[in-house]
Write a structure and sequence with these properties.
Layout lengths: L2 E4 L2 E4 L4 H4 L2 H15 L17 H4 L5 E6 L5 E8 L2 E8 L6 E3 L6 E8 L3 E12 L2 E12 L5 E4 L7 E2 L1 E5 L5 E6 L8 E6 L5 E5 L5 E6 L5 E7 L4 E6 L8 E7 L10 E3 L5 E7 L6 E7 L4 E7 L6 E6 L6 E7 L3 E5 L2 H14 L3 E7 L5 E8 L2 E9 L4 E7 L12 E7 L5 E7 L9 E5 L16 H8 L3 E5 L9 H5 L8 H15 L3 E11 L1 H12 L6 E5 L5 H7 L13 H6 L22 E6 L8 H12 L4 E6 L9 H18 L4
Parallel strand pairs: 2-30, 9-11, 33-34, 33-35, 35-36, 36-37, 37-38
Antiparallel strand pairs: 1-2, 3-4, 4-5, 5-6, 7-8, 8-9, 9-10, 12-13, 13-14, 14-15, 16-17, 17-18, 18-19, 20-21, 21-22, 22-23, 24-25, 25-26, 27-28, 28-29, 29-30, 31-32, 32-34
Length: about 675
């Protein structure tokens, strides 16, 4: 067993599951790993062209994603792969098999949290009829580890949002949940006994207040909502016995100072929040007085990017950490012990990145992910008692970093002078001259960005010989308010220009051949791919989309339940559409098919509840009617992503044939 030592941290390079699990559970996962390894190509030198990696290997699902330790550190909750399908699972380090939590096929798993050591709360969502249209409905459920029973938490006829969890008792006895008793009421806040679902109203409906927030002791302290036309308000109280009073009323166009990320200290008007720096427009971490609305001391900022989130110590008083992304995800630890530990992890893993993803309440046990852009990596269990990182689960055991291409963080200038960040991945074993290119815009598009970590789709294209450009076009998250605002009302317009300008930049430097470019994306990225092919067919040889948007007006109507931007509180319609008189049909691929002259590949899950399946099926019908070259593949039972290895492999297989036909790399 290989061991690296740095600052007392021992990284055990060989799998050490036998030290952590019983034989039955270890054997089950070993069998999964063996199956994954069958088609793995042999590692090759980075200076030569790597062997073609099988799509079945690239499409391997991680054994676990998003792992969360229980408070006592004895169990892990996460999305686990069982029988080739992704489900929510609970792994007990002392038990032979995981507990798998199944839900109806119509439900999406959104998030999950521990409620003490004996229960897991999880949110689900589904599309439901809503008046004369459809909308996305969320609900909260609890899984009891002792009985294996799953049941709903909350009411029976509440409004669309039923998973607005404000606080969980550390012992797992009760929680605070905000929801509308009916669709005609403003939300109330209920204290709910997790074991019995018995409820007590702690905050009654307050006109126009939609979002409530609690402190670390479970006292609801403030709320936000609309106030008249194009205005917002904040109400506040210092203690549980006080009445709420309005402390802010302002225009929607005014900043709301990042109230989606706040911590207020129990028994005090003081707390912490993210607020925008006036000088650079980026979000930083400040002290804040919620009674006077006075911003205090600057606690931390990034020199280049927004602070995304932060956390406090269990008592809610001292800051623990702040997270942000520049060229890659990063953490700033305020706690000196955690900072020292992070430094030791970083030294132990060298050029790879070590991220602490979960901790037990006493911080004696932690889960750490170690990986890189060219390394799927693995999750390790760290125990302070012996200072060792023991491998818990690989993300894709069948892949070696020597087979995979590294991703670089780059910048280029858009036509209006705006600097656009991007990630560039060049294929191994090929000169960086005249390469075929895949432009791969991310989804979202707002408040979302790529981060340069391992991406199976990027590696698929690079392995096939393509350069891959991932532009962080205007409106992408994490780059400050001015960058965000330049993307407002720019779907299909300046946001699209940024993609084309990235292509021109690479062509000018001779890295790519501008006559060998295909644009591919998912969700919003799928819209950008379809619109790019229609708007500028002379630029692209082909376009492909998974769960792409073809009709902006239809999608906007469907998404109006997401009507407010979390960070900037802007109206969603204005953010997408821009001017009231702008006709979205002029930038919708469905209504501009006559402009399309390149082949299109479409794939969509028929249970997608984020971008409805009709967005692709209607577009395919229109393509067929117009006599355009296209391929359309439906994934039965799939949602807004790939939940099985087979579905992801089918995406790669279809792309393999499609690209070889219309934009071959050789």
């Amino acid at each position: 067993m290989g061991v690296l030592v740095a600052g007392g941290i021992r990284l055990l390079l060989a799998a050490a599951l036998a030290l952590m699990f019983s034989a039955g559970w270890t054997a089950a996962w070993a069998a999964e790993d063996a199956q994954r390894s069958v088609a793995a190509p042999k590692p090759v030198a980075a200076t030569s062209r790597p062997a073609r990696i099988a799509t079945s290997v690239l499409a391997n699902r991680p054994l676990i994603q998003g792992p969360l330790l229980s408070p006592d550190g004895k169990r892990v909750a996460g999305r686990v792969t069982a029988g080739g399908t992704e489900v929510l699972g609970i792994i007990d380090f002392s038990a032979p098999n995981p507990q798998l939590i199944k839900m109806g096929e119509s439900w999406d798993l959104r998030w999950y949290r521990w409620a003490g050591n004996g229960a897991v709360l999880f949110s689900v969502g589904m599309m439901v009829p809503y008046f004369d249209s459809e909308a996305y409905q969320t609900r909260l459920l609890v899984y009891d580890l002792a009985t294996g029973a799953t049941r709903f938490i909350g009411g029976r006829s509440e409004g669309l949002i039923g998973d607005d969890l404000l606080w969980i008792d550390p012992a797992g006895k009760d929680l605070l949940l905000s929801y509308q008793k009916t669709i005609y009421d403003w939300p109330s806040v209920f204290r709910i006994d997790i074991a019995t679902n018995q409820q007590q109203v702690v905050v009654r409906p307050y006109d126009n207040i939609w979002d409530w927030y609690a402190d670390d002791q479970g006292v609801v302290r403030f709320g936000f909502g609309n106030y008249g036309y194009n205005r917002w308000q904040m109400v506040y109280r210092a203690t549980e016995g006080e009445k709420f009073r309005p402390v802010v009323r302002a225009r929607v166009t005014d900043d709301i100072a990042g109230y989606d990320a706040v911590r207020v200290i129990q028994g005090s008007d003081e707390g912490y929040m993210l607020d925008r720096e006036e000088a650079n427009g980026r979000y930083a971490l400040f002290k804040f007085n919620f009674a006077t609305r006075q911003r205090g001391e600057l606690m931390f900022e990034s020199p280049t990017n927004d602070i995304d989130s932060f956390d406090t110590a269990p008592d809610g008083k001292a800051l623990l950490a702040a997270w942000y992304t520049d060229d890659r995800p990063r953490v700033h630890w305020f706690d000196p012990v955690m900072k020292s530990l992070q430094d030791d992890f970083d030294s132990a893993v060298g050029t790879r990145q070590a991220s602490i993803v979960s901790r037990s309440r006493d911080e004696k046990i932690m889960l750490v992910h170690v990986g890189a852009s060219n390394d799927p990596g693995a999750y390790y269990v760290f125990q302070k008692a012996d200072g060792a990182l023991r491998r818990f689960a690989s993300v894709n055991e069948a892949l070696s970093p020597r087979q995979l291409a590294s991703t670089r963080y780059v910048h280029y200038q858009a036509r209006d002078g705006l600097e656009i960040p991007a990630y560039l991945t060049l294929p191994l074993g090929r000169a960086a001259r005249g390469l075929p290119l895949i432009i791969l815009p991310h989804g979202g598009p707002y408040d979302i960005r790529d981060d340069g970590s391992y991406d199976a789709e990027v590696q698929f294209y690079a392995n096939r010989g393509y350069a891959v450009l991932q532009p962080q076009f205007r409106g992408s998250g994490g780059y400050g308010k001015p960058f965000y605002e330049k993307g407002e009302g720019q779907w299909g317009r300046a946001m699209q220009d940024d993609l084309d300008d990235g292509m021109d930049w690479l062509a000018k430097d001779g890295v790519i051949d501008p006559k060998r470019v295909c644009i591919i994306g998912s969700s919003y990225g799928g819209f950008a791919a379809l619109w790019g092919a229609a708007r500028n067919p002379e630029r692209y040889r082909c376009a492909a989309t998974f769960a792409g948007i073809s009709d902006l007006g239809r999608q906007l109507k469907y998404q109006l339940d997401f009507k407010i931007s979390k960070r900037y509180r802007r109206d969603w319609r204005t953010t997408v559409k821009g001017a009231d008189d702008f006709d979205l049909k002029t930038v919708s691929p469905l209504y501009t098919i006559a402009q399309l002259h390149v082949p299109i590949l479409l794939m969509h899950g028929d249970k997608d509840q984020r971008v409805p399946y009709v967005q692709s099926s209607k577009f395919a019908e229109a393509l067929r009617g117009a006599g355009k070259a296209y391929e359309f593949y439906s994934l039965a039972g799939e949602g807004h992503g790939f939940s099985t290895r087979e579905n992801m492999q089918q995406w790669f297989d279809r792309l393999d044939v499609f690209l070889a036909k219309y934009n071959p790399a050789d």
